[in-house]
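Researcher: Re-running this chain for the archive, since the previous output was lost when a drive failed. Same request as before.
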Amino acid sequence: MIGFGGLSHLGLVSAVAAASKGFEVVGYDEQPALVAELSAGRLPVHEPGLPDLVSEHAARLRFAADPSALAGCDVVFVAIDVPTDAADRSDLTPVSRLVGQVAAVVAPGTSIVVLSQVHPGFTRSLRPGAEARGARLYYQVETLIFGRAVHQAVNPERFMVGCADPADTLAPALAAFLGAFGCPVLPMRYESAELCKISINMFLVSQVVTTNMLAEICEGIGAEWREIAPALRLDRRIGPHAYLGAGLGVGGGNLQRDMATIRMLAAAHGADAALVDTWASLSQYRRDWALRTVYREVLARVQAPVLAVWGLSYKEDTQSTRNSPSVHLLTALSGIDVRAYDPAAVLPDGALPHVHRVQSALDACRGGDALLIMTPWREFGEASLAAVANALRGRSVIDPFGVLDPAAVHAAGLTHYRLGTGPAPSC
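Model: Regenerated structure tokens:
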């Protein structure tokens, strides 16, 4: 039996993926209300494919609010989402507490695997306490992506497993579990695995920031970034899966957290992390592209403007608004009349009191002087542009991600602004 401690996004998706591979799974969380909701089939997170997967494998899933439910497990993953503060620094206290709870109830020889993202050195610091109770302690790199987490959990590219000594064989129960997914397993020391996840994210940040810088140059010289990106993907040194979509900086929480961790590690060990500061500065500048555009094209010209905003979450297919460019935009637009729609985003109580949330994308457009599409949800690309044009008072559509077809926007009599697209060259 496989156990999971912590049933927020990471733990829940991982537990359901384990059940999909035929394992009996028990999930523990200290919040009885959350356990009751999950036991009733009500999910606390928005993730494409998750409701169907839960329904299909419900017979192998059990949820409990008592850690003793994990006592019969051969492997227990500590998969609590790690909270961060306003400076994106991780609070690992809940992870330490949960590892202690698990170690106190499992049988000797059980593998405890820390799946939560932690900084290098953390797992080894927990080893004496865990092994004093007879458990074997591992760290595994989590690679879930919001909006694609189910696919990633069920079809992982590889497993990176931190061990006290990577020369030792993995515990049989853990090896059997990982082997069920049919992907490479890469053992390494604890510290290498902990830094591996951060390293992956730093390379992603570098791609995002470089893409956005080049896309802005395109906007100035009349080039089209969407014409350049396919050529880069065909370069073997860059590759077909590179992050080459122009965007509004680095959103979400994970990448910012890892940049903060790199700064901390560099300061502690005498490394130069000035590059990370540059990335952060460029990301913040690019995040405000929509604000600069709407000010130039609408706010500086229209008295008592009304704005329509599609999308609040930091990316499509998630309800998370952590470091969302849309939320940053709307915070800066305090005092402006805004009508906003998002199919799933959850905002903290009292956030953005000047924003009126409506029930549909078209409702947001009624009487608006401009439409800003801040999250590239699929449904936005399927909207009737004739209906949008009729509902809007103004003609500006600020579409950073290119959700809408430019020719269709033009045919509807609207003016289209996109990231990475320069003015049409004169003939």
